Fold Thiol-disulfide oxidoreductase DCC family protein.
Amino acid sequence: MSGIVLFDGECNFCDQSVQFIIKRDPEGYFSFASLQSEIGQELLHKHQIPTHTDSFILIEDNQAYTKSSAALNVCKHLKGAWKGLRIFTLVPKFVRDRVYDVIAKNRYKWFGKKDSCMLPSKEIRKRFL
């Protein structure tokens, strides 16, 4: 069993989020693909998510999670106290997603946009689809 994280490959905040997950996922539970990549687009299509979706997405157990649900489901697999963030699943999804949407809408303004991708080490590169 493993999870696939789809992320915006042009977003600095998204890239930092992927790096954050990698550091706290030493067993390599998660694999990664950018939303813009061919495999990212194929996975969106397979899970009937519009290809223009602008969200962090987790695919796990053949189910796709978006926005805050994706982020909170990632947390349950991370090393350390991050599992505790799952308590926020008690907050209604429409409230969590509203906060998520504010961050997503402003992520380029607040964190910038990438001109090029990072070059991960060989070991980490295996986790990118």
